[in-house]
């Protein structure tokens, strides 16, 4: 399962990249608004930081298919041909996906609330589809189940597409998708940090450290012995 960072703050991205095995960064217009500054410059800086092979997903904001395609061309020129162009699953968005697919552009269908939207996007050429797990939960439905259904439907119908589950509130939602073999998730740094947090682990390490210090003296490690 790929783990992507859903953020546009370069410092936060660098920090999480140092600590966790990450596979790329996703952004959307709201995340870029939160970051502030010129969004294209922000994306360029993220691209420059990311290691070779890491994914960058960035979203078009145009409302018609033709404009989305033009916008995507410009983004690919500035950010690199391997950038994933995020396109919302509106009817104009689906039309744009078909046009971009003809040019072999990497497409991430976004703003997905139902499994049918994801299915149509995959048929239109999206490589990734991003169901908004937590937002779906907040609407009284089951976001994890929607993501699982999409994953299963892609396999059942032999579609060359994966789920890129987005919008998480907690690590349990991520775990449930991981157990189901979901292809990728994108989450904010605090949710990624929560994936390994456990008081029992912290306490165990505390005891190990104290025991070792009482054996060889405070502050000593294997390196000093
Ligand atoms: O990538 C989509 C995601 O950023 C939405 O997350 O937390 O705004 O629901 P959220």
TrEMBL record:
It comes from Clostridium gelidum. InterPro entries: Aldolase_TIM, TAL/FSA, Transaldolase_AS, TSA/FSA_arc/bac. It is found in: Cytoplasm. CDD domains: Transaldolase_FSA (cd00956). This is Transaldolase. It holds the Pfam family TAL_FSA. It comes from the Bacteria. Keywords: Schiff base. The keyword NAD does not apply.
């Amino acid at each position: 399962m790929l783990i992507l960072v859903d953020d546009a703050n370069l410092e936060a991205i660098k920090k999480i990249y140092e600590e966790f095995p990450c596979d790329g960064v996703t952004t959307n217009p709201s995340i870029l608004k939160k970051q502030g500054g010129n969004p294209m410059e922000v994306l360029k800086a993220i691209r420059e930081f990311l290691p070779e092979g890491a994914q960058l997903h960035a979203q078009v904001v145009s409302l018609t298919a033709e404009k989305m395609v033009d916008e995507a061309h410009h983004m690919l020129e500035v950010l690199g041909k391997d950038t994933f162009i995020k396109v919302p699953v509106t009817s104009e968005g689906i039309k744009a996906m078909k046009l971009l697919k003809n040019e072999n552009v990497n497409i991430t269908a976004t703003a997905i609330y139902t499994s049918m939207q994801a299915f149509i996007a995959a048929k239109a050429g999206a490589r990734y589809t991003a169901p908004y797990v937590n937002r779906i939960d907040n609407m009284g439905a089951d976001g994890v189940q929607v993501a699982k259904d999409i994953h299963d439907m892609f396999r059942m119908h032999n579609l060359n597409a994966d789920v890129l589950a987005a919008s998480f509130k907690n690590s349990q939602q991520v775990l449930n998708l991981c157990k189901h073999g979901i292809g990728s998730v994108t989450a904010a740094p605090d949710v990624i940090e929560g994936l390994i947090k456990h008081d029992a682990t912290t306490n165990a390490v505390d005891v190990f450290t104290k025991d070792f210090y009482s054996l060889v003296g405070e502050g000593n490690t294997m390196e000093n012995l």
